[in-house]
Design goal:
Blueprint: E1 2-6, H1 15-30, E2 34-37, H2 43-51, H3 57-74, H4 87-90, E3 95-98, E4 101-105, E5 126-135, H5 138-142, H6 144-152, E6 156-159, H7 162-172, E7 177-178, E8 202-206, H8 213-226, E9 229-232, H9 251-259, E10 263-266, H10 269-277, E11 282-284, H11 291-300, H12 314-318, H13 324-346
Parallel strand pairs: 1-2, 1-3, 3-5, 4-5, 5-6, 6-7, 8-9, 8-10, 10-11
Length: about 350
Amino acid sequence: MKVGIITFHRGNANYGSALQALCLKQAIEQLGHEAYIIDYVPLRSYVHSILKRLFQPSQLYHFWQCCRAQKKFLKPHLTPAFSFYNQRVLSHYDALVTGSDEVWKINIVRGLNPAYFLATTSPAPRKISYAASYCNTPVFESRLKEIRPLLAQLDHVSVREESTAAMVENQTGKKPAIVLDPSLLHEKPYSETRGTPLDTPYLYAYIEEQISIAYGQELIAYASQRGLKIVSYNRQRALEGSGYIYPHCCVEEWTEYFRHASAVFTTTYHGVCLSVHYQRSFVYAGNALKAYKTDYLLQMLGLNDRSISAPSQMKTVFETCVSWETAQAKLAQMRQYSMDFLNHALA
């Protein structure tokens, strides 16, 4: 079966989006199908990402570097680029998959984009959502009359967390499967080993936005106490003066920074996924508006104690051993369940 994947795979400053897209493609191929990532990047979202960094030269440069790295990483796996979503794209495939990540996030910036619900007026291929996620925004609530039939026309539905499952069930009357993010579907390393990125022990900070001075001070204090160099994914004002480094890296090198880190501090969902994948000692401090998504993953794996809500909690959590045996057993069960869903949906 020829399968097309539509997701947010590039055009942002988050390497996790590129990684999950490739991992989903590989999972589908593992089941014996031919899979492609449709290189669809909504212009509206891309322009907004540029405009919000327009007066921050260092952040704009970082964004540009990330976009280049994402495209290079995914280039062998992409279909030819399409500037819009059309029936010609759909006619190439026997099945379409939307997901994972926040493909159903509808806000003022993204608007309601039917592409991520696999909407089509032509004879439709099989339509599947895999680990889709949404945000309960005012815009989403205002468009429910349009969203409901878009959800109902999907043939097989799976989502990434309980909140999205509840939304789908409320709108369609059907309970969807809850599955793993694609980045957790594989046991092997994400890339061929390149060796340790640094010749000194380090703490890796994978942070999307700027952290507070208080969080920065706690990170610096813990790293200093442990004799660790701080390596940050991007420039952080709160870490200035600490001697931290923020090397630009490609996606493969980014995964290696997780793999060899002595400790990880992250504010992102995929930062947690990579920490779990490589069994790193980690601390998660998420944005309150998004934390519930990551908190669900942590709860599912029995790792709730790795999440903090205040800087003062950081040291205690870092010094608490992670119960990897329990987490890995639960992860193995969910991995099998998730692959079974894909196999059944594509059978």
